[in-house]
What does this fold into?
Amino acid sequence: MTLDQRRQAYNLLADILEYPGPDYAEKVRDCLELLEGLEPDAAEHLKEFLAYVESVPLGRLQEVYIATFEIGGICAPNIAYHLLGEGTKQTAFMVKVKEALREHGIDSGTEMPDHLPLALKLVAVMRDDGDAASFIEECLVPALQRMTIPFRNERSPYSRVIRATLAVVKNDERKLMEYSGGVNGD
It folds into this structure.
């Protein structure tokens, strides 16, 4: 995956992990189209998700999103919660992430700085592969792995998006580690 493709993939995944709007199916299609040749496992998950998106009205999709990701939902979309639980460590982490978002020109709006779509957008704009690899390895992969756990007993179509995102991030982690000499290098 080239740097431009990586940026595009992370931004598209971030878009489809946001609350669905009128052009939502188009965003999913765009992401699927990009990933089909690059990340077959991720693309397979998105194909199933797109079939669901195209089969329900937008209002129903929005209800499912809320039931999945909002307060009391199946899966919190906040990486600090999955990495650190609640408490002072989580607060310190979020301060660092908010600072990184600000440094990279990303406005968190009303979302917490550790909101998964914001974290994906952050990786998309990181210019240093070492920083991106560290953030992916230390934050995104473990958080996404934990995010898949609640879906084992729940049937939300968004489990497919989380699994697709995890597949992209894990493959990117491996490639970035190889590139930076972290794997088989010294």
Observations:
- The chain has one domain: 3-179.
- The domain at 3-179 is CATH 1.10.3480.10 (TorD-like).
- The chain has a mean pLDDT of 89.
